[in-house]
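Entry 14. Ran structure prediction on the chain below.
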Amino acid sequence: QVQLVESGGGLVQPGGSLRVSCAASGMLFRVTDMAWHRQTPGKQRELVAVITSGGSTNYAASVKGRFAISRDNAKNTVYLQMNSLNPEDTAVYYCNVYPYPSSWGQGTQVTVSS
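Output, structure tokens:
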């Protein structure tokens, strides 16, 4: 059974940086494409970034140039480095398998506010 545990969220000032992590289990991680999504209340979950098993990446236009997705196959972990954060980035961030998500974890809250 796939299990995803996100961590590393918090409160950060506009212009600041934060890195969130996602520990995955119950899958053959090294051959699995992974993605980060985010969701704010009343809105649909938004795809933010994708990383393939081979390390290729893609980003939503809203975060391109500011966010960086990476993975550590030895630790079964995917990361999202977020720079130049602005209040519109405030959301609960989730990781999952791409393109067919498994059950969702609890997410990690990122709040960008002064």
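The chain has no helices and ten strands. Will compare against last week's run tomorrow.
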